[in-house]
Amino acid sequence: FVSGKYDQYNNSVPYSAILKCMQEMVDYVVSSAINMREALITALDGKGRTLLEVLPSIKSIIGEDHPVLPNVGGDEILERFLKAMVDFFRVFAEKVKDKVLMMMIDDVQWADSSSFKFIERLVKTNLKMMIIGVYRDNEI
């Protein structure tokens, strides 16, 4: 179970609650005896540096020796980033074996449009995970 929360006054950071959930997942792996290095490196397939830029603590799992990715256009950079995030969640969803990865996101009414698009993409990947969104209907 991981959770993140959007902030009404700091909604200029795209994916903030999702990145918070990813941070909790990294913290869990670092504090436990679970070895996910090879699974993450394989799944990220050369996109490790993409996640290192937004989730620096992941270097404690995958290291920091990842090639600089070739310069591409803005749409391709975004696609690479989104694919890396989906691959990250895929590894964790597969590692929980007979359980379901649960992600709870609070104050969804303050989420940025990029986060909504990513969550939609994540749902469409059919991972073994449950995403719970909590919102306050009086603040929409």
Can you walk through the features of this model?
This protein is mostly helical and 140 residues long. It contains 6 helices and 3 strands, in the order βαααααβαβ. A 3-stranded parallel sheet has the order 1-2-3. The two termini are 26 Å apart. The mean pLDDT is 88.
Quick overview of this protein structure:
This protein is mainly alpha-helical and about 140 residues long.
Outline the secondary-structure elements.
Layout: E1 2-5, H1 16-31, H2 37-44, H3 48-54, H4 59-62, H5 74-95, E2 101-106, H6 113-124, E3 129-133
Any descriptors?
mainly alpha, three-stranded parallel beta sheet, 3 strands, globular
The beta-strand count equals 3
Q: What is the structural class?
A: mainly alpha
Specify the helix fraction band.
40-55%
Oligomer: single chain
> Strand share of the residues?
5-15%
Element-by-element helix/strand order: EHHHHHEHE
Shape: globular
Round the Cα radius of gyration to an integer and report it.
15 Å
Strand order of the largest sheet: 1-2-3
Number of helices: 6
Low-confidence stretches: none
**Terminal CA distance:** 26 Å
Largest sheet: 3 strands, parallel
Arithmetic mean of pLDDT: 88
